[in-house]
Write a structure and sequence with these properties.
The protein folds into two domains: 54 residues; 65 residues, no CATH class. It contains five helices and four strands; from the N terminus they run αααβαβββα. It starts with 5 loop residues before the first helix and ends with a helix. With 128 residues, it is an alpha+beta fold. Helices cover 52% and strands 19% of the residues. α1 crosses α3. The chain has a four-stranded mixed β-sheet with strand order 2-1-3-4.
Length: 128
């Protein structure tokens, strides 16, 4: 029998629970957990849950943005960045003092690096 990936289990869970509420949702999750137990996949539950969350967001058109800057960004700056990427955005902010200034924006499939550290490194390489 072919083994299924954690991502495949996550997509199956999403499809099985889409639109369910209350007791129906509880029952579907219980049955899914039983399936995982039978398939000896319970140890991968955290990975499956992470894939489920990612897939659910993608299906709902929600995009994750990870913003890293040298210093905490103001709400106004964060809102301006969110407007560029669309309406359904979830932002996680972090700081890294080594960036000196600027910001690094990571999406699902791109990294936009506008940090001073990267600009200085590019300048150094071009002068060498």
């Amino acid at each position: 029998m072919k083994k299924h990936s954690a991502r495949q289990y996550a997509i199956a869970l999403w499809r099985a629970t889409k639109g369910l509420k209350g007791k129906d949702l509880e029952s579907a999750i219980f049955n899914f957990a039983s399936l995982l137990s039978q398939q000896r996949m319970l140890k991968k539950a955290n990975v499956i849950i992470n894939h489920f969350i990612s897939y659910s967001k993608k299906q709902d058109g929600i995009q994750d943005l990870e913003l890293t800057s040298a210093y905490p960004l103001s709400e106004k700056t964060i809102d301006s960045i969110k407007k560029i990427f669309g309406k359904k955005i979830e932002v996680v902010c972090g700081t890294d003092r080594s960036l000196i200034g600027g910001v690094i924006i990571k999406t699902r499939d791109r990294i936009l690096d506008a940090s001073i550290k990267t600009q200085l490194n590019k300048l150094k390489q071009s002068l060498a």
